[in-house]
From TrEMBL:
<protein>
    <recommendedName>
        <fullName>ABM domain-containing protein</fullName>
    </recommendedName>
</protein>
<feature type="region of interest" description="Disordered">
    <location>
        <begin position="79"/>
        <end position="105"/>
    </location>
</feature>
<feature type="compositionally biased region" description="Polar residues">
    <location>
        <begin position="94"/>
        <end position="105"/>
    </location>
</feature>
Length: 105
């Protein structure tokens, strides 16, 4: 599986729009359900830094074919405060809990 990490900063005025466009990509992924693909996106506490982690088997990345991702890409240059940094990454480990933990009394 190939993993790529993309990090970038948006302008303060466009960060919410950027998040909305990312959410649209996730909504489309939910309906299309591409196999062999994992995608995560994070907005850091500064409010303007975004991190995307893309994992694709056999170098097959379904994102470029999605209309929601095309819409995200179409105006990305207008939202950026700095050029994105794209880096290949190699998994050292991963853990996902198999049980739910609820708190509250």
């Amino acid at each position: 599986m190939r993993t790529t990490v993309i990090t970038y900063r948006t302008t303060v005025d466009t960060a919410d729009e950027n998040q909305h466009l990312i959410e649209q990509v996730f909504a489309e992924l939910e309906t299309t359900g591409p196999a062999g693909f994992r995608y995560q996106s994070f907005r850091l506490d500064d409010g303007i830094t975004f991190v995307h982690v893309v994992e694709a088997e056999d170098d097959v990345d379904p994102l470029p074919q999605l209309p929601a991702f095309q819409a995200f890409q179409r105006t990305i240059g207008d939202r950026l405060a700095a050029d994105p940094q794209r880096s290949p990454a190699h998994r050292v480990g991963s853990y996902t809990s198999q049980r739910s933990v609820t708190t509250g009394r």
